[in-house]
From TrEMBL:
The keyword Nucleotide-binding does not apply. Pfam families: Glycos_transf_2. GO terms for molecular function: transferase activity. It comes from Brevibacillus nitrificans. Residues 5-101 form the Glycosyltransferase 2-like domain. The keyword RNA-binding does not apply. This is Glycosyltransferase family 2 protein. SUPFAM superfamilies: HCP-like, Nucleotide-diphospho-sugar transferases. Keywords: Transferase.
């Protein structure tokens, strides 16, 4: 039977690492923890959980630390987690299912909690985390797997909470700038830098990096749909609706498959029409069309994006749209649909309308 090692790097993660290791200890054959300089009880907790713990001096490169952890693993396959992540219950069978197939790089659905205007939401990212021994990483930050093997989506889900209401932008930007010194026109690094500035609410600087990423991207990158969505949302923050409209027009056909792009369109046309009702009122039906398209496409975890963009969030926004235009029957229909999927704002709206 093929064996699996957990490979994890950590520094000062005493608040999270126990839950992480407990979630995986009965799933893998060994747990490798590489500590990069903890001053808290991270290492002691890892040992108590049954992990093999190694020290590795921090070199300002996540890839260096991860590759050292991979070298310590003795199993046929490697599962990579961060200390602030938790493997979903029931994953053992899903891992076995994947590793008994032909060799490939397994993408895992990483679900990250974040705040959007005071509301907790969840972003899904398919990230390569399960692969045969011998694969390595490159990159100081947002490190990427190096392998000629095909990348395939697994059915494994991991909850990530380490970035929720924390600020790691200073560390991340420092490493990204070092990478950009070497590859100034790398669209992936430019996009990640833009996201860090966006997380700081520095939308003007973020826009400069999003613009450059858009300029240098080939449009074939797996992250390209998310780049476009993030770029246009950032322009909306700056009130640059005309510029955003140009990008939307250029990408509408290419991104027709992506629920989050249609969700963006619905939100964009709300702002776009309200910004100049006299000249843009003919775009009003685009709001309805966009959110209906989200519902038609449904949730597409393999593409990444915001949880609910193809279901309860789209349904809620349709309810809002119909309520505003005076179609109470349709408003109630879509509020109920959203409420049935557990969305609290839809439940609140229904109580008010009764």
């Amino acid at each position: 039977m093929k064996t699996v090692s957990l490979a994890l790097i950590a520094k000062n993660e005493e608040a999270h690492i126990k839950n992480c290791l407990h979630s995986v200890q009965n799933v893998v054959d060994e747990m490798i923890v590489v500590d990069t300089g903890s001053t808290d009880n991270t290492k002691q907790i890892a040992v108590e959980c049954g992990a093999k713990v190694y020290d590795f001096p921090w070199t300002n490169s996540f890839a260096d630390a991860r590759n050292y952890a991979l070298q310590q693993a003795s199993s046929d396959w490697i599962l990579v987690l961060d200390a602030d992540e938790i493997l979903e219950v029931g994953s053992a069978e899903l891992i076995r299912e994947f590793i008994t197939g032909s060799p490939a790089i397994g993408r895992v659905n990483i679900v990250s909690k974040y705040l959007d205007n005071g509301e907790v939401r969840y972003d899904c990212s398919p990230i390569s985390r399960l692969f045969p021994k011998g694969v390595t990483y490159t990159g100081r930050i947002h490190e990427q797997v190096i392998s000629s093997l095909p990348h395939r989506m697994t059915r494994i889900t991991v909850a990530h909470e380490g970035y929720f209401q924390t600020d790691k932008t200073e560390r991340n930007l420092s490493l990204l700038m070092k990478e950009l010194d070497e590859e100034p026109n790398n669209p992936y690094l430019l996009m990640q830098t833009a996201r860090e500035y966006r997380n700081r609410h520095d939308y003007h600087t973020a826009n400069q990096f999003f613009s450059r990423s858009y300029q240098y991207a080939t449009k074939e990158e797996g992250y390209y749909p998310k780049l476009i969505v993030d770029y246009v949302y950032n322009m909306m923050k700056l009130g640059q609706l005309d510029e955003g409209y140009i990008v939307i027009q250029a990408e509408e056909e290419r991104l027709a498959f992506f629920p989050d792009f249609h969700f963006l369109l619905g939100m964009f046309y709300m702002d776009y029409v309200l910004g100049d009702i006299a000249t843009r009122v003919e775009k009003l039906p685009n709001i309805e069309t966009s959110f209906l398209k989200c519902m038609e496409l449904g949730e597409r975890k393999e593409l990444g994006g915001v949880l609910g963009a193809g279901s309860f969030l789209a349904a809620y926004n349709l309810g809002v749209y119909y309520e505003v235009i005076g179609d109470s029957g349709k408003a109630l229909k879509y509020y109920r649909l959203s409420s049935d999927q557990g969305y609290q704002k839809a439940m609140d709206r229904l109580r008010l309308l009764k």
